[in-house]
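Format notes (please read before filing issues)

Several people have asked whether sequences and structure tokens are stored in separate files. They are not. Every record keeps both together, in the order shown below: the sequence lines, then the token lines. Line labels are part of the format and must not be stripped during preprocessing.
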Amino acid sequence: MPHISLGNDEPGIRSLFMYRPDTAQPMRMLAEALLRGPSTLSPGERELIATYVSSLNGCGYCTASHAATASAQLPEGRMLVDQVCAAPQTAPVTPKLAALLQIAGAVQQSGKNVDEKDVTAARDAGATDREIHDAVLIAAAFCMYNRYVDGLGTLPAADPAEYATAAQSVISNGYLGKPAQPAESEPVR
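Then the structure lines:
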């Protein structure tokens, strides 16, 4: 049960976005830019980074949600997502993506855990400065999203199939979708 009354029965971050549409909009815009905006990394690769960080943070809702979206956009599907979450060092990803996942994992612990050897390894594997930047920002943003979802005790989806349905909506409509409606449980002051 959520720690506060959200005025809706939606799972995870969707319930929080409905509760505070004013804060939802910039958070949705950030997710859209990072995960679906122009990039030399595919949307599936960026979703995979978000999934990996969410799994490290133990955020069940975000892990399931982004795993479904990554799986639907990667040729290797769910098997690759599960391999990355279990053991990114041995998962069958490109050296560049492996290096970016290493950086994302370091950011998940602390931004100060990213060191020059991580950046050099990513560059040596073919990562651009923009890709390194985006891996760091995806990891940092998902630490925030995960803590937001879990810090308010939101609920997981009632039916695991909801994650696949939501993934298809993201793939078709992006993260901006239709604006959420404010909760009526508490007046805005």
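For reference, the curators noted about this record: The radius of gyration is 17 Å. The chain has one domain: 37-171.
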